Amino acid sequence: MAKNMQPIAKRCRALGISPAVMGYSKKTSNRNPGGSMRRKKSEYSMQLTEKQKVKFIYGIMEKQFRAYYEKAEKKEGKTGAVLLTLIEHRLDNVVFRLGLAATRREARQLVNHSHFTVNGKKVNIPSYLVKVGDVIEVKEKSRSTARFKAIAEGENASVATPKWLSRNENLLGGKVIAEPQRDDIDFPVEEHLIVELYSK
Questions:
Q1: Which residues of 115-133 are buried (b: 16+ CB within 10 A; e: fewer)?
Q2: What's the pTM?
Q3: pLDDT digits over 95-114, tens only?
Q4: Comparing C-alpha atoms, which of 162, 127, 150 is closest to residue 138?
Q5: Which residues contact 129 (CB under 8 A, 6 or more apart)?
């Protein structure tokens, strides 16, 4: 399985996003402080940057991202907004948004290691798309690990759960209670630029 191993702080700076979006609130990068102001970006460069930003935040490679775009194109509504909300359905993202992992990168690893169930069934595919009504929980055998004990004791209690998810503190999990909407996206992105890039 392909993995994105780029340095977080450096890549965040290049894409113009805060490391906090990735779950790394203490990471900073002081290299080349004026680098982003060297020259005016072309239209293509701005479109490409927006696509790379979304791919990097969610940890998605190009082939899979393109498949999401093509799926979004076939659905009703604005393609860009549909694309973002479709990606929000990913299991690794839901695990992160429920506060069951500190970052999306950690969430992918935990899902890969079979620490979660969806509706009582083990799922170890980070790209698994959850649906309204699905219940995501930490697997019974995993609840005794130090990582999940810390979460149960309130390590991530301050994490804001989006309104389309309902977190169950006692069960170390939560439920999908609605479809995510465009305003639920927790970082700035101009998705119309992604649509323009793929429409060429």
A1: bbbbeeeebeebbbbbeee
A2: 0.82
A3: 999 999 989 999 999 999 99
A4: 150
A5: 86, 89, 90, 91
